[in-house]
Write a structure and sequence with these properties.
7-stranded beta/alpha barrel; 18 helices; single chain; alpha/beta
Length: 491
């Protein structure tokens, strides 16, 4: 049976305020709260909440046969808590249905996987903890920022406990192969790969309201017909979309919500089911290995990482940011760590893109800046202040190698302290055991002499008296014997 695997991605960055050169060293708050508040409330009201409620109705009306997955960044979750907490309540209701799988992605929606494996692992762990604590779910499937993936990432994902990953079905990687299968990672065969069907996903995301598109208008029955017409051996079609597609990128007046809600009915008529990523991985047998030597993504025509690291501006900002990664991780300054996460969000680098044509239009459409150079200047001003704050805790005179050596020493000291603590505990237990045994011996020793003394006291008391009597008698007798002879002579 053919299946559809839906994944809805949720992310919004903390947008930076206009930060001037003269603010460096004076103002340590970098965010445009008014803009963030306005955007979050508007998108939650127009897109996220009605989209989530639509998914909830689809699950209930189809008695759980509609199933899907959601991936949300921790940065977005923080803003929902602040600006639109009602959306979190709807997400909790979706989680409680058991028909929605939550997929883990980097907490800061960062590019850490391209430069800093330790930071990437920490952020994935933070997201999993967030999902566990707030929604009571465990995650076994990963989705990296913007579907970024390469062979180097697979072994780390396995080490972190993931058994599946969502990524882009890039044509330059697949060649003649189809994205409508389950694959295994060449560098970690135990990791299963689900590949986004770019055409069918973009038909909804970008072409739904395009009146110049030959297939306009797109209806639910037409869309399901396209999926049903794929070769029978192609068992799964992965549709990965930003949730803001519904109601924001494609307004509600276009009929996008009605389109989404009608899909399960037409799918059932054609024998097509809906599955979560974990269900797809468990049910479907992989058809082969897939190697991705260079990073791919779901962004821009090239499907690579040039959307964020395609020019000198982006690379300079990226390198300066991650040059202090070790220092920040060792800091105990909560405000510094919070800014570190928010400044890693890939959107800041996306705004700096100087691409043109279709890609350029997409970048400018999402950017709050007039030009990529304005985005770069503003970010670098903020970053300059941030780096000064990091330097206050870890001066530049301490080089990275020296810092790493110090951190290694600290780590070793921690291990030594732990070993000594264990040894001390063992010694304490031995001392306690010795004290117990010693007290028992003393108690036994006290009881034993008392019993002996009570039994022998009469004999021991009489013996000295008899000896004393015998000793006194011989001393008195000689005197009496000496006097009697004298008396006899006198007579």
């Amino acid at each position: 049976m053919k299946a559809i695997c839906f994944n809805f991605e949720i992310h919004q960055p903390f947008r930076l305020k206009r930060y001037r050169f003269f603010d460096i060293g004076k103002d340590h708050y970098y965010y445009d709260d008014f803009l963030n508040d306005d955007i979050m409330e508007r998108i939650a009201r127009n897109s996220y909440i009605p989209a989530a409620e639509t998914l909830l109705r689809m699950i209930e009306s189809n008695e759980g046969r509609f199933r899907c997955s959601i991936a949300m960044s921790g940065i977005a979750f923080e803003q929902f808590e602040q600006y639109a907490p009602e959306f979190i309540d709807v997400l909790k209701r979706l989680a409680d249905t058991g028909c929605v799988e939550f997929v883990a992605q980097p907490y800061a929606y960062s590019l850490a996987s391209l430069n800093d494996p330790e930071e990437f692992a920490a952020q994935m762990g933070d997201t999993r903890s967030l999902l566990r604590n707030r929604f009571g779910v465990e995650t076994k499937v990963a989705r990296n920022t913007e579907l970024i993936y390469c062979d180097d990432l697979a072994p780390q994902l396995v080490e972190l406990g993931f058994n599946g990953v969502l990524t882009e079905g890039a044509k330059h990687i697949l060649g003649w192969k189809s994205p409508n299968y389950v694959y295994t990672a060449a560098s970690a065969p135990s990791l299963k790969m689900l590949l986004r069907n770019g055409k069918l996903s973009d038909d909804i995301a970008f072409r739904f309201t395009d009146t110049s598109w030959p297939e306009f208008p797109l209806t639910a029955d037409k869309y399901i017909d396209w999926i049903a017409s794929t070769p029978a051996e192609e068992q799964i079609v992965n549709i990965f979309l930003n949730m803001e597609t519904f109601g924001d990128m494609q307004p509600a007046t276009s009929g996008i919500f009605a389109f989404l809600e009608a899909l399960p009915r037409f799918a059932a008529e054609r024998g097509i089911e809906f599955v979560t990523p974990s269900e797809a991985i468990a049910r479907l047998k992989p058809v082969g290995e897939l190697s991705v030597m260079h990073p791919i993504s779901g962004a821009d025509e090239a499907r690579d990482i040039s959307a964020w690291l395609g020019n000198r501006l982006q690379n300079e900002a990226f390198e300066k940011l991650y040059s202090v990664a070790e220092r920040v991780r060792q800091s105990q300054n909560r405000a510094l760590k919070q800014d570190w996460l928010r400044l890693q969000t890939c959107d800041h680098f996306f705004y700096m893109s100087t691409k043109r044509k279709a890609d350029g239009i997409a970048h400018s459409m999402f950017s709050p800046y007039e030009t990529p150079f304005a985005a770069f200047t503003n970010y670098m001003n903020v970053l300059a202040d941030f780096l000064m704050r990091v330097q206050e805790e870890y001066p530049e005179q301490v080089g990275n190698e020296e810092l790493n050596s110090l951190l290694l020493t600290i780590a070793n000291q921690g291990q030594e302290i732990e070993a000594l603590n264990k040894e001390l505990m063992a010694m304490r237990k031995n001392a306690e055991q010795y004290n117990i045994e010693h007290r028992l011996r003393e108690a036994n020793a006290e009881k034993t002499p008392k019993a002996t003394k009570t039994a022998k006291t009469p004999k021991a008391t009489k013996a000295p008296k008899e000896k004393a009597a015998k000793t006194e008698t011989p001393a008195a007798e000689p005197k009496k014997r000496g006097r009697k002879p004298k008396a006899a002579k006198a007579e």
